[in-house]
From TrEMBL:
Gene3D superfamilies: L-arginine/glycine Amidinotransferase, Chain A
InterPro entries documented for this protein: PAD (IPR004303), PAD_C (IPR013530), PAD_central_sf (IPR036556)
Positions of the Protein-arginine deiminase C-terminal domain: 235-324, 333-445, 447-483
The entry's keywords: Signal
Protein known as: Protein-arginine deiminase C-terminal domain-containing protein
Taxonomic path: Eukaryota, Fungi, Dikarya, Ascomycota, Pezizomycotina
GO cellular component, one term: cytoplasm
Signal peptide: 1-22
GO MF annotation, one: calcium ion binding
One Pfam family this sequence matches: PAD
Amino acid sequence: MYLSAKAVAIVLVTLQFGAVHGQQPKPMILADTNRDGIVDDSDATDRAFWTPSRGAIFLPNVSDSLKRCPNQDLQGNPISNHELASCHDASGHLLLEPSLVAPLKTIPLEVSDDTISHNYATPDAASERVRLFYLNDSSANPAETASWSFVDPEFTFNASHVQAGITLGIDGREFVKDFAKWDGKVWVHLDVHANGTVIFDVVELKVAPVLTHHHLQRVSAFVSTAANESEPLVRTAERQVFEQLRGKGVGGFQPEGGRGGYGAREINAYGNLKTILPYTSKSGVKYPAGRIIHGKHYDKMLAEATIAFLEGQELQNPLSLSLDGYSSVTLMTAHGGVRAISSNGSVEGSFSITKEELAVTVDELLASETFHEVNAYKQRHIDANLGILLAEIPILRDHVIRIPSLFKAPKVSSLSSLTETVMEGEYLLVSFSPAAINGVVLGNYYAGMKVGFVDDSMSHHHTFGEVHCGSNTFRETDVAWWE
């Protein structure tokens, strides 16, 4: 995930609420409710309940800005995956990355010198997942860690703080992992204890969602495996995200839990998770940030923790297809995009095959009943997936580009460590030759793009991967997803 934050200015509001003619002082806590990057009196209305169109947003501070999180223990042994993912800027009580904190402000109150106030977060599910800080001094530099102090749930502010107004900040320890346990919303309370009574105010915020990129977002960085390496280009789970990519402005997050777990199931490798371009479905549902599309193995879905995490973000509700039955590219056209889908077609021409298959001629291949049965089987699933897409996305069948592809059923023993048992009457298939297009589009030709054809037979295809297994992209993030 690639994190970024716009500079946020805090305007010290000068409104004063005094006890005039016996009037009770009225406390007020403000956040950037109107999302203009400034906390001021324009945020004073409709603060108590967050809505998609109005309400402050805050970020989880899950980067490692100071590179303090170790990869090994004191004996030089790799720490566990859980320990590695659990260490980040928000895993303690110091505000190590102040630029990612969302500002709040209490309005100055004219109160007696024995007055105290209390700031805290509710409900419990939220208070465990967020952190509150206060700026020690109005003259302190808000960009420095030393300028901020953690607000313990039992911490109280004295009358001088209440009279001057308190500058607060909030960040998160994690994203929404399971909507049923926490929906990402938090109420930040201001309780003022004065003259034997408690007067209070509240503002509601929500944690920013994790959004997957789509191909209309400009690429800011292309990430690939190192060239000319003699060691196998195989990652150890997701450790590289935390060991190599994470840093200032770049965070890593590992959803955990669920009965399914992750294990070694290939379906959880994310190679078949893409993003449909922003669209409005044929049923009228809007997806302004695009929509996640992912594969499944018949009734075998992604790990429960992954599904709960993706659905918990709300904005890109996942659409499931039968695994490996599609590939997606983007063309700039009047209707917003063209789907490219693999299709069993002509076997004419040359393509890379294994040594064992080199002895097989085209005529022998065409005479093979298994070859025809396997590809007819695959075509049925491709057609079914295409039907799902066309029922959902407002594009015409004529706008679909069919790319000829052939498939084969490999020996089960060669995949047994990566996949589950294949049910009777079904096939576990792989591409007969390296895939022609695999989701990464570079260049600027013809319809605004250049398609690169990469021979990945030896580097990836022989180990049942393709180009996307060794590449990734960071894309622009300054998108107002709530609009």
